[in-house]
Amino acid sequence: MHRPIEIELGKMSCRSWSQEGIYRLLLNVLHPDVAEKWQDLLVYGGTGKAARNVESLDTIIHALKNLKDDETLLIQSGKAVGVIQSHPEAARVLVTSSHLVPSHATWEEFRRLEGCGLTMYGQSTAASWAYIGMQGVLQGTCDTFGELADQHFNGSLKGKIVLSSGLGGMGSAQPLAVEMHGGVAIIVEVNPDKVIRRLRNSQVEVATDSLEKAWQLAREYADNGQPVSIALMGNAAEIYPQCLRENKLPDVVTDQTAAHDLLAGYIPASLSPGKAIELRLRDPERYLAMSLDSIARHGQAMLEFAQKGAIVFDYGNNIRGQAEKAGVKDIWSIPSFVNAFLRPVLSVGKGPIRWVALSGNPKDIYRLDKALLKRWPEEEHLARWIRFVQERVHFQGLPARGCWLNYTQRIALSEMISELVRNGELSGPIAVTRDHLDGGSVAAPHRETEGMLDGSDAIADWPILNALTNATCGADLVSLQHGGGVGIGESIHAGMTVIIDGTDSAERRGNRVLKADPSMGIIRHADAGYEGAIQASQRLGLRPWDDKR
Ligand code: NAD
């Protein structure tokens, strides 16, 4: 693409708000402030794309503009493949991405088929057009570091140094999250352009290419109990071992390079980003060998940090799986972030919901912030979160808010939005959607479902049931995808979007979906034997037979 496609906010490009909302979300994930590389349709997470190619994007746009209120558009891995006659309360768009038959689900086979033009890597919210930029994972990142602080450091990261890597779409949430808990973040990033972009957006405060300087500054701030975030230009596979050699020992270590994809995401030591692009194309086998060699050093260093007393965790990029392939023994002694920190919350139906002002008017988001705070004045956590994002986060693309809400709050949110749109207190409809990392929406044995109580880590029925449930309840868009976060062969996950436009139909469907969707997280965890989930399911009548216990 030579120039980004702009959303014409003042006019309707589609027949109704359902199609129009989805159309605006599609263009939003490709907005230059949102997408990591809009020219190549790359949204985030390594090669997570919004459409298979420019021609496919044009066809999808054309199809959405012409889609009738009783039709459903089918998207197969970033390409429009058909329109079926459905009915007005059915999903308007159904998306599947990156699926392969299980015995064929390897990166090698995926790349072969991608090369034949038959598929596309959709990450989680890239292909489902629900990505809103860094804010979408910020609260999950804040809660992860918050829980870590509670478990290990008496509730605060004050005086602590966190070392991580990757300032990409997701990774750039890390510095803000660490600062929110009073800590010092050093984030290693190999691409200077990403560092400049994060500095410009105030997502990091300082940048340097010297470990010595970064460490000195970090120590100074930590010793004074002051938060700061430092981008350190370099390669994590070199910097982590160097820290160990020089006895620079952080309190917490993790990583958010795009390690799930060793060819098109991770950059091996000694290659600049430019050289990496060139070698990937010229000699992919050599590139992969270099990546594995670097991952071995990177993963081994993480293990050694843990042995020296740091709190070390895998932040959802499958670095442990890759390190195992590279020969690092004992790498699985490092826990995943969900298992270590987030499961208690996810298992009772609380999760990452987000809403987008389709009008483009930031005031709509602030009005909803106010409504939320008024509705739950006693929720200090929520108030602190809203204050923090209002102060520290710039909107990227369409104004949006990402927030972790529980079962009751999600239903109330849907009712609240419907009322405010209907009364004209918001300047336009709102799209409510969520991250794929939720209690019942994903199966990923090395991430969200690692170490399940009943051993059901690799059971992938749950996200499929989740998608079917949301389609049954009338979400405007339902997606079922493969390989997000951790890569091909490693995950199946589902997403949903409802467009709340003040009509009775949208209100009905919004209420149904925002009730059913978190129910899946509770049901999934109740089935696995989590006590909190069993109690929630009994309270909500989700598994009537549980009453007989
Ligand atoms: P991204 O591709 O936008 O960014 C990755 C960054 O890592 C890039 O800026 C790249 O230059 C940098 N990088 C690559 N190799 C490096 C190296 N060796 N040393 C230093 N920097 C290096 O990806 P993203 O959206 O930020 O996602 C990061 C990872 O997290 C991915 O693997 C993704 O699948 C996973 N992920 C995690 C979550 C979560 O909630 N924790 C959610 C979605 C995705």
Structural class: alpha/beta
Characterize the largest beta sheet: strand count, sense, and whether it forms a barrel. Answer: 9 strands, mixed
Q: How many beta-strand runs?
A: 17
Q: Could you give me the name of the CATH homologous superfamily of the domain at 135-335?
A: Urocanase like domains
What would the CATH topology of the domain at 135-335 be? Rossmann fold
Ligands bound, unique: nicotinamide-adenine-dinucleotide
Poorly predicted regions are none
Percent of residues in beta strands: 5-15%
Shape: globular
What percent of residues adopt helix (DSSP H or I)? 40-55%
Distance between the termini: 59 Å
Report Rg.
22 Å
Number of helices: 18
CATH architecture level-2 label of the domain at 135-335: 3-Layer(aba) Sandwich
Which CATH first-tier class of the domain at 135-335 would you pick? Alpha Beta
Q: Main attributes?
A:
549 residues, Rossmann fold, 9-stranded mixed sheet, 6-stranded parallel sheet
